[in-house]
């Protein structure tokens, strides 16, 4: 697919990491059972028990990054949508953001989201001076994209590079920030709500074949559990026979047609002004109309801000709700 589309998707989908995730300090984010292991997406049902979260001024996340603050952060700048997602779950809002996920009605809605200052420069190149103008206590960004900003922010604020690769990562980061902000009850409640949703969806796993595709034109990509947080949920709730082929690899419409896809979820990625839905563009290919999901009216355009970029427990909960409804 086009280099630009690949670059954008790269930050929305990264490799799933092995092992259990750390929560607050040295505590694990999950229950420590095999159901929480990232490599067990299609295995045992997800545990719904939630370990208590303790407030802390210093945490070490699952990737070994330590964040130490003199007091609970109040002014937080989000450079990645996962940050916005977590703050909303904790009953907070970012001081500034460069994400559009807050406009979703299940987050803040357009009116309230419009009141949050936007960091200029876009996702790939947020302006350091603009970030610091908000005098943030904490700045949260994606490690492989915003890590380059760390030297410029050092001494003026605390920068926390995150890199979610699975829902377990997302839960771990939720617990970490709940500990730092002292919003432990809110963190526990958000984790419990998500785990319960996932366990319920697993209990009623569909035998239908699902597929998530993304892109801006006919050169689409397939979201796989190894490279996409939302797609990592799908082997637990449906038949999802798609494996990663690396950054440059994808699937053809011929291969998709051969898999008899029952439900097709489409993430349209826009570069600049929106120029139409991906599903409408693919409709020009004669093979498209032969896919069972297309023939049966089971092609669902989803909010890419939530499905591709959110990656927090609120976003993933919405993914589960929409996916399970479509897969019945």
Number of strands: 10
Shape: globular
The portion of residues assigned to helices is: 25-40%
Secondary-structure content class: alpha/beta
Number of helices: 14
Topology readout:
Layout: H1 3-12, E1 58-60, E2 66-68, E3 76-78, H2 81-89, E4 96-97, H3 110-113, H4 128-132, E5 138-142, H5 143-146, H6 150-153, E6 158-162, H7 167-181, H8 184-203, E7 210-215, E8 221-222, H9 234-237, H10 253-258, E9 263-268, H11 278-282, H12 292-295, E10 299-302, H13 304-310, H14 313-326
Parallel strand pairs: 3-4, 3-5, 5-6, 7-9, 9-10
Antiparallel strand pairs: 1-2, 7-8
Overview of this protein structure:
There is one protein chain. This protein has 328 residues and is α/β, with parallel strands linked by helices. Helices cover 34% and strands 12% of the residues. The strands form 3 sheets. A 4-stranded parallel beta sheet has the order 4-3-5-6. A 4-stranded mixed beta sheet has the order 8-7-9-10. Strand 3 (76-78), helix 2 (81-89) and strand 4 (96-97) form a beta-alpha-beta unit.
């Amino acid at each position: 697919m086009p280099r630009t589309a690949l670059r954008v998707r790269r930050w929305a989908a990264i490799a799933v990491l092995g092992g259990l995730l750390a929560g607050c300090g040295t505590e694990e984010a999950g229950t420590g059972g095999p159901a929480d292991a990232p490599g067990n997406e299609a295995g045992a049902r997800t545990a719904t028990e939630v370990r208590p979260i303790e407030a802390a001024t210093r945490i070490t996340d699952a990737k070994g990054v330590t964040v130490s603050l003199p007091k609970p952060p109040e002014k937080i700048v989000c450079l990645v949508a996962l940050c916005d997602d977590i703050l909303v779950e904790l009953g907070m809002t970012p001081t500034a953001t460069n994400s559009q996920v807050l406009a979703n009605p299940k987050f803040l809605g357009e009116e309230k989201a419009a009141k949050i200052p936007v960091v200029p420069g876009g996702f790939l190149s947020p302006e350091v001076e603009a970030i610091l103008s908000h005098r943030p206590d904490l700045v949260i960004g994606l490690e492989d994209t915003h890590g380059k900003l760390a030297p410029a922010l050092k001494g003026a604020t605390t920068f926390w590079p995150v890199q979610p690769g699975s829902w377990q990562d997302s839960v771990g980061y939720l617990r970490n920030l709940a500990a730092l902000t002292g919003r432990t009850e809110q963190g526990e409640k958000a984790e419990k709500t998500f785990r319960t949703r996932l366990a319920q969806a697993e209990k009623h796993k569909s035998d239908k074949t699902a597929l998530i595709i993304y892109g801006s034109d006919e050169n689409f990509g397939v979201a796989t559990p190894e490279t996409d947080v939302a797609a990592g949920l799908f082997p637990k709730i449906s038949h999802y026979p798609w494996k990663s082929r690396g950054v440059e690899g994808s699937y053809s419409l011929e291969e998709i047609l051969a898999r008899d896809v029952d439900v097709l979820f489409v993430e349209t990625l826009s570069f600049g002004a929106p120029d139409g839905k991906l599903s409408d563009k693919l409709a020009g290919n004669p093979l498209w109309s032969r896919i069972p999901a297309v023939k049966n009216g089971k092609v669902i355009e989803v909010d890419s801000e939530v499905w591709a970029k959110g990656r927090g427990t609120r976003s993933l909960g919405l993914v589960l709700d929409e996916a399970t409804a479509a897969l019945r």
